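In response to the reviewer comment on reproducibility (Comment 2.3), we provide here a single inverse folding case reported in full, input and output, so that an independent group could reproduce the run without further information from us. The structure tokens appear first.
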């Protein structure tokens, strides 16, 4: 099943866990302001806490909040060239 969350350049999809997995053509800077969100990557899950920071580019990922506390994330997404285009240029 596919889904779109309206993020330009995103590649979104549902997995059996019902998280929205996605990848964007951006460099993402994320700081946890409040709560304990989980960043799900294809090979691992990372539990985050306030003041943790994440920088990612073109990573397939999903977010979840396993607690009752609201998770607040401060995010800045900066446009970037798709990773596939960079691979073609360096080959």
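Designed residues, in position order:
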């Amino acid at each position: 099943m596919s889904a779109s969350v309206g993020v330009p350049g995103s590649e979104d999809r549902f997995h059996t866990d019902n998280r929205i997995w996605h990848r964007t053509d951006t460099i993402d800077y994320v700081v946890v302001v409040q709560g304990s969100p989980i960043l799900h990557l294809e090979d691992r899950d990372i539990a985050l806490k306030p003041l943790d920071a994440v920088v990612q580019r073109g990573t397939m990922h999903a977010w979840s909040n396993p607690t009752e506390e609201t998770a607040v994330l401060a995010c800045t997404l900066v446009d970037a060239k798709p990773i596939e285009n960079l691979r073609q240029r360096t080959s």
